[in-house]
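lol ok so funny story. i was supposed to be doing the assay writeup but got distracted and ended up predicting the structure for this chain instead. priorities right. anyway since i did it might as well share w the group, maybe its usefull for someone
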Amino acid sequence: MDTPLTEIDRRYKEATDFLFAQLPMFSRVGAAAYKPGLDRSIALAGFFGNPQEKFRSIHIAGTNGKGSTSSLIAAVLQSAGYKTALYTSPHLVDFRERMRINGKMIPKEKVIEFVERWKASDYSDRPSFFELTMMMAFDWFAAENVDYAVIEVGMGGRLDSTNIITPELSVITNISFDHTQFLGDTLSKIAGEKAGIMKPGVPVVVGEAEGEVEQVFRRRSSEIGAPLREAYREIDSEANESLGCPLAGSYQQKNINTARVAIDEMRRLGIKISDEDVARGFRDVEELTGLRGRWTVIRKRPLMVCDTGHNEAGLKYNLTQLEFLIEKNRSELKADQATRPTIRFVIGFVADKDVAHILPMFPKDAVYYITQAAIPRAMPAEELRASCESLGLPARCYLSPAMAAEAALAEASPDDIIYIGGSTFVVADYLAETGR
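and the output, tada:
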């Protein structure tokens, strides 16, 4: 029997239901929700008194690694004693994960208050879910007098609604193919959109770039006078390792390096951050910011991890990491147990994901437990199963991520690895269903 909702929970649900209905959010329905451009965001900010001008900010764009890099920077600022806000998307389980101050999510009462104030206003336009959510965050950050807000771009950069801020520092993590229907079908076009967060006179740190992408960033920074720092030319493995960051997965090494260089640039800008602040921020990033879903270990034997990597580049990093772990496990087994452990994939994708390019990366000697997230944008499990089997990937369908993970666990040996992912929303549903 369901527990009756409290009055606050009931009003909070009404408030979030209202938000989700405001031109449905892209993450749930896809292209129909995409409303690019800054005019609406600028007008909306003006209506609320331009709260984004009342705090200092760090702006972070990129195809992969935005969330981890944002969280690392926020954790260090928080460790340094600054009242630090963090704005990220999408959320995994609770809408309020999108906006935090010193690691604490916005109170339900503040969400209710903002929505009721908005509904009672005479504003003539109808902002999108993302625009209204962003303004809620900025309004709350300003009211709470935060020192710094670390703001993650939603999609792209140039036309993303967060691009109304003028930050102290811009960061671009990397560029790879994702959302090509909106950002362009070449890496240089995508880089051009991400480079749109650069501002005249505002330093920019780029985490990873080469070839045409590197040229796009160098050209844009030169054109507008944004001092450019290329973190990938300052890789210091010893320094990165000494930070003791718990974020696992081989791809996190680049995010750690990008964040380390960005923090060094912040120090150059006069932001007081000690070595101890950096060490604590990196070491305690998950505790300080609530970061989840980045190679999160659910159990150790068999190893079960979930990760929100969902595009070609992110999944390639994860598949490489899985293969490394399998070979490591195999080498550690006794001679009479040298059978190769099995990777068991609990996966689902969104319907607009180009699985024809992604699935061939997956190993044929793994087992696939196909599922779909409970969102309209999810790819039907049977459709994904058929695509897997056409490529020789043995697959079965399950009604939910939790049921798929339970089946994988029941069939796994202690040395196997269970990977939950493919889509942020598969990870989100799994965490919500299992109460983790």
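The longest helix spans residues 312-332. The mean pLDDT is 90.
back to the writeup now i swear
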